[in-house]
Amino acid sequence: MLTNNDTKLINSLVKKKFRQKYNKFIVEGVKIINEALTSPLEIHKIFTTELISNVPEKKLELISEKDLKKISQLVSPNTALALCEIPDEKPILTEGFILVLDDIRDPGNLGTIIRMADWFGIEQIVCSSETVDVYNPKVIQATMGSFLRVQINYMDLKEFFTSYNYPIMGTLMEGKNIYQSEFPQKAAMILGNEANGISDELVPFITEKITIPRFGKNQQTESLNVAMAGGIILSERASRNSKNIS
Predict the structure, then answer these.
(1) Backbone φ, ψ for residue 239 (5° rounding)
(2) Which of 75, 149, 186, 189 suits a disulfide with 166, CB 3.0-4.6 Å?
């Protein structure tokens, strides 16, 4: 049974301040929930319209489709919603190739970038404090479960780069052609804000400026979506690495 307290709590978690207050977030969809069940993520309760196999009965709460619509953030609700504990942040991994996100504001963009990072084997993303919260329901949904496999940390990026010991790459309009650039095994790649790009205060830290050249003749396209740009970069890096291995 879905109580009024359950409804109020779950709906409040749309806002970051309440996610922080209760240290909880929601995951929707049987596919993502099944992935979460096999991960270290702590799941408090699963509200579902159908029984889910391999789930302890004490964690399941069977509810009606009407009740699910009261707590779902989806236009077309799935059959299940899980109430989860926000895990403690782990120490940042700096030894491999990492993504650094500077003030990414769109939940869909962040979710897509996390999903692409998972696809291309990137284990660490460091986000500026202004970047949208990874536990925003729209971000979680856009990751399609990849948030479980990619470590996300938030911190002041100037502070981070001050103690970072490897090359720092940045996507800028006046950078070197990406298809002629090198991708070190240990490096950070900065992706900037959707409207303003990389912050002026971070540009001095960049040791390798790169750009994705435009091949089309239409000059009205000013820039690429940040998630698209990230996908192109990760794909080119993967292609370069596979050639080096072979």
Answers:
(1) -65, -45
(2) 186
